[in-house]
Description:
Layout: H1 3-6, H2 14-35, H3 37-45, H4 67-72, E1 88-91, E2 101-104, H5 106-122, E3 130-133, H6 143-153, E4 156-158, H7 165-174, E5 179-182, H8 184-196, E6 208-211, H9 218-227, E7 231-236, E8 247-249, E9 256-258, E10 263-268, E11 275-276, E12 282-288, E13 299-305, E14 307-308, E15 320-321, E16 326-327, E17 332-334, E18 337-339, H10 341-352, E19 358-363, E20 370-376, H11 379-382, H12 386-404, E21 409-413, E22 428-430
Parallel strand pairs: 3-4, 3-5, 5-6, 6-7, 19-22, 20-21
Antiparallel strand pairs: 1-2, 7-8, 8-9, 9-15, 10-11, 10-12, 12-13, 13-16, 14-15, 17-18, 19-20
The protein binds zinc ion (ZN).
Amino acid sequence: xxxxxxxxxxxxxxxxxxxxxxxxxxxxxxxxxxxxxxxxxxxxxxxxxxxxxxxxxxxxxxxxxxxxxxxxxxxxxxxxxxxxxxxxxxxxxxxxxxxxxxxxxxxxxxxxxxxxxxxxxxxxxxxxxxxxxxxxxxxxxxxxxxxxxxxxxxxxxxxxxxxxxxxxxxxxxxxxxxxxxxxxxxxxxxxxxxxxxxxxxxxxxxxxxxxxxxxxxxxxxxxxxxxxxxxxxxxxxxxxxxxxxxxxxxxxxxxxxxxxxxxxxxxxxxxxxxxxxxxxxxxxxxxxxxxxxxxxxxxxxxxxxxxxxxxxxxxxxxxxxxxxxxxxxxxxxxxxxxxxxxxxxxxxxxxxxxxxxxxxxxxxxxxxxxxxxxxxxxxxxxxxxxxxxxxxxxxxxxxxxxxxxxxxxxxxxxxxxxxxxxxxxxxxxxxxxxx
Length: 435
Ligand code: ZN
């Protein structure tokens, strides 16, 4: 399929898109009702029949689906097809309970390939680009999605998979890599290592990074774009929905275009679950519009964002979502105050001017929560006078208290003492005993 054909639906007139979405929603709801016990039961409990869903506006009559629902139906209870029609299975890591098994028919894989191809087109990639895929190839739906999308684009694909930093850098240097797909924290780790071995990334043809699979911030983008030759683009996609490729930033870097012909987005208030209008921040809810093996209706992603309906400079007509920098389940509570890691990042950035490696450690020594932010200092600062370190520590503590509204301890630690992740960065270590 040519680039033009593959991305056609990104440019549909809004009315035409809404009509397509409505038709596909009706088909999805019927499919789910007829084939998945949980959806049929939920709809019956709400007194709903597939015939009641006539237009896109009826979507808010449908009940929500949460992660727990999918976990409870482990392994195959949410499938809408027999296993014979399933050509691929992936699963979530199951770090927060049972894994969720995700099934794909041949057509589902074609959709996945299509949306990744469209994401790569958003970044300005094309045939002739050399794409290094440093997401894991395995049960987690990471590398393979990008792999087929990049091949469909006609790019040269290097399936390095995750880990093995030295080999990643060798490939990047020797194979003429122009784009890399990885988590942003892992790329920062690669860049740091490149510096240590005197590999100048600016001397390479590298120009695009497709970063996702973990929340990241504008501060991280600025750091990547300042220290490396990359334009850093965001990609988004929960495994439960299809994997990476639900939405991607275009060259305007001003929100991620949602591939709305396949994934219908809503924003709801996470407390009341009432729908919120475009522009207002809340929890992202997604309904798949074309998934065969595992249709997902009104899935609560736990990701906090807002939708942007204003036209984009790139000419695509599909709506955008703001970058996801926090999740409802990343939030932690210290002495009754809700805090997101992104707020801690904002405080560090305000003082340091760039984001150092950091970690938040929560303890409860005497029945009261204690929060300590451990921040790596640069080797230069470490050789400086002790006074400079004390000064930095005090300024960080003051800024944290100012932005968070609670007192946090600050501990400066030596360079490279905070564990570097091969995948998602672990920001919060909660050692509190709940009694
Ligand atoms: Zn755009």
